[in-house]
């Protein structure tokens, strides 16, 4: 079954997706050729977020297997800096302070 190099690759299409805890998805603006590195947006899972001021895009590199000639069969790998998804503080933890 071909693996689409769509603008929203699945976790199976990213070789090291599991290395980033609480990562929900990755989105790309454009497809890439084998060996090319592109910038990709990331989203953390519910209850998690990138740290305040953290980069919003990360490097994804496309690679293909020379023995697999099926269209769109390449895979992505997060390279260089990895995103880090931190727990967020829920609104219920914020106390309302009355005007004094």
How does the SSE layout of this entry go?
Elements (H helix, E strand, L loop, with lengths): L22 E6 L8 E8 L3 E3 L6 E7 L11 E4 L6 E3 L13
Antiparallel strand pairs: 1-2, 2-4, 3-6, 4-5
Please explain how this structure is put together.
There is one protein chain. The chain has about 100 residues and is mainly beta. It has strands at about 25-30, 35-45, 50, 55-65, 75-80, 85. The mean pLDDT is about 85.
Structure keywords:
100 residues; mainly beta; four-stranded antiparallel beta sheet; two-stranded antiparallel sheet; 0% helix
Short description, anyone?
The chain has no helices and six strands.
End-to-end CA span: 65 Å
In DSSP terms, counting alpha (H) and pi (I) runs of 4 or more, how many helices?
0
User: Which class do the helix and strand fractions yield?
Assistant: mainly beta
Summarize the helix and strand pattern as letters: EEEEEE
Strand order of the largest sheet: 1-2-4-5
- Gyration radius, to the nearest Å? 17 Å
Overall body shape: elongated
Mean pLDDT: 85
Helicity range of the residues? under 10%
Strand fraction: 25-35%
Main beta-sheet annotation: 4 strands, antiparallel
Low-confidence stretches: none
Secondary structure tally: strands: 6
């Amino acid at each position: 079954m071909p693996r689409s190099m769509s603008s929203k690759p699945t976790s199976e299409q990213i070789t090291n997706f599991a290395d980033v805890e609480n990562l929900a998805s990755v989105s790309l603006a454009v497809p890439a050729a084998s060996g090319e590195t592109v910038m990709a947006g990331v989203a953390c899972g519910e209850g998690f977020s990138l740290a305040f001021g953290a980069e919003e895009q990360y490097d994804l590199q496309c690679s293909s297997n020379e023995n697999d000639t099926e269209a769109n069969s390449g895979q992505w790998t997060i390279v260089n800096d990895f995103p880090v998804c931190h727990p967020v503080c829920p609104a219920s933890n914020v106390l309302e302070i009355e005007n004094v």
